[in-house]
Amino acid sequence: xxxxxxxxxxLLLTLTPAHEAQDTSAKTPSDPxxxxxxFRTPAHVRHSSPQVFHGFTHDLWSFLREKNVLLKVDPxxxxxxxxxxxxxxxxxxxxxxAGATSLLFVTVDRPLSKWIKVTVQSYDLDGKLxxxxxxxxxxxxxxxxxxxxALERLQTxxxxxxxxxxxxxxxxxTIVPAPSEGVVKP
Length: 186
Hints:
Blueprint: H1 3-15, E1 34-40, H2 42-47, H3 50-66, E2 71-72, E3 80-82, H4 88-98, E4 102-109, E5 117-124, E6 129-136, H5 143-159
Parallel strand pairs: 1-2, 1-3, 1-4
Antiparallel strand pairs: 4-5, 5-6
């Protein structure tokens, strides 16, 4: 096989961006994007299960992606889900390194009087708290019902903030078309 026939094909493969239908990451370094860190409190560790924590994290992440929030994922660390306390400064450094323009800090707690309590705080990269939302189950009879109520309440609160500071969403201007898209042929 001739090398001059293979090289253009390989070059085409390396220059063509991978395209995912649900990719909501920022496409350029200047695009606003949020980095999410999720913390599991000691009370949640003692009185709930890891499945509840990771499930809530997954459901929140899925909600944000469905709403086209521009999420950054650190290529080295991924998204941080931790039981270890971190300073806001440390989380902001990670967000900066990932190329995000803000930090979404999510705390999953298990107070004795509730099945689950979730606090979401949005910080700019200077460490200024831009906003905070909180949701809990408010007296559900079961843990599963409490989980669902808290998630629904949090989604309602966050939906009002979509497109604002700390929750940038993908718009037509932030979508980078694939090479065959958006090309007008004469």
